[in-house]
Amino acid sequence: MKKIISATLVGLLPSVLWAQSGSYTLQGQLGAMKAPAKAYLRYGSGTSVKLDSTTIQHGKFEFKGSVDSPIKGTLLVDKRGTGLSKTRPTPSISLYLEPGTVNVSSPDSLKNAVVSGTPLNVDNQKLEVALKPSTDKMDALMQEYRAATPEQRSKKEFSDALDKRYEAIEAEQKVVYAQFIKSMPTSLVALDALKSFGGYAPEYGEVKPVFDGLSDAVKNSKAGQEYAATLNRIKATSVGELAPDFTQTDTLGKAVSLHDFKGKYVLVDFWASWCGPCRAENPNVVKNYNEYKEKNFTVLGVSLDRPNAKEAWLRAIHKDNLTWAHVSDLKFWDNEVAKQYGIRAIPQNFLIGPDGKIVAKNVRGEELGKKLAEVLAGQP
Fold it and tell me: Which stretches make up the Thioredoxin domain (predicted)?
């Protein structure tokens, strides 16, 4: 009996026991890939992001370091050895940096790599295998988009069709994440899967019950406690809740507060001059603003522009004809209001009613006009 129990416990070890701190070695073997090919390791370190690199020789590469607690990182491989590019996609995979030796092996490329050697990476490999069918579909969709001509991309029918397929693939992935979390509640990988399950704008009522189903060890971990704090912010910015008040300076340095707009419907719009999707949505916001600004409605823009980029922010406001109030602390992703509202991607918005409560979230495109027509129907 004891042997059977011991064997059962050994089978659970990869999911239950993860060392908190220590040194790691990341070893790779990618076929016969050779210089000038380079491998890059990107991971978070406090509030900053670190990027290490090394040359690949005869398919081999190695990184060494230490962690205070397990962290998720990204391994990227540039065959040309010319450096990472914003315009040229670089193959990448996710893995965990934790005490021990992490092995990345493939007969040829990073795309076919298997990650093993440490508990969390064993768990993560199971998730990657389950996700592969939908990941392949997503890769094919992105290749189709990149291969399209500017004329094709500008057509509404083309973009709508791609959006529909993208959402269908996301739905497939969400099912996989949910199944993995349910089957691996004692693994930290399940916590990261939950973040992907929730998406860029998670709904409290959907993700909180899933989080509650994780083991106490996961919930009490450093990452678990951080996500619990995130959940509190998500709850505070859910539909029906009183919108958290805030104050930031406008383009002239004057303090503007959310409570200044009490008694009006106000769309708090998170955006930035550097954000392509935000700029693409701006004409729609302008259209609705002009249509409803005389019906007790206005917009308050909160920009996540970078430090020392005030001119870019001002130029974008002028060029896009955004004639409503704008605020920013020019701290990029560290924007205090963005952190207060749990913003991890833009564009995002919150429609707030005259009583200060959140009426709707992330209404864009045609949905924005429909929602405004609904809530402003009785306004003079």
Answer: 237-380
What rounded mean pLDDT belongs to the chain? 90
**Fold for domain 22-114?**
Immunoglobulin-like (2.60.40)
The CATH superfamily holding the domain 241-377 is: Glutaredoxin (3.40.30.10)
Q: 100-147 pLDDT, tens per residue?
A: 999 999 999 898 999 999 999 999 999 999 999 999 999 899 889 889
Per-residue pLDDT, averaged over 217-234, amounts to 92
H helices of the chain, where? 2-16, 119-147, 150-154, 156-183, 188-198, 204-212, 216-219, 222-236, 276-292, 310-319, 336-340, 366-375
Asked whether the CA dihedral 10, 15, 21, 24 is positive or negative, the reply is: positive
- Ranges of CATH 2.60.40.10 domains, the chain: 22-114
pLDDT at 146: 87
CB 343 within 8 A of CB 278: no
Closest to 37 (Cα-Cα) out of 76, 77, 79: 79
CB distance 360 to 371 below 8 Å? yes
What's the order of all strands across the beta sheet hosting 325-327?
Answer: 325-327, 297-303, 265-271, 348-352, 358-361
**DSSP state at residue 253:** S
Find residue 78's DSSP bridge partners.
38
As given in the structure block, the two tokens for residue 18 are 């993860």
pLDDT (tens digit, 9 = 90+) per residue, 28-59? 999 988 889 999 999 987 778 899 999 999 99
Confidence of residue 301 (pLDDT cuts 50, 70, 90): very high
d(CA 224, CA 215): 10
Instruction: Tell me where in the chain the CATH 3.40.30.10 domain(s) lie.
Output: 241-377
Please give the Cα distance from 30 to 50 (Å, whole number).
Answer: 23
> CA-based Rg of the chain, rounded to a whole angstrom?
24
214, 212, 221: which is closest to 185 by C-alpha?
214
Residue 15 clears pLDDT 80, i.e. is over it: no
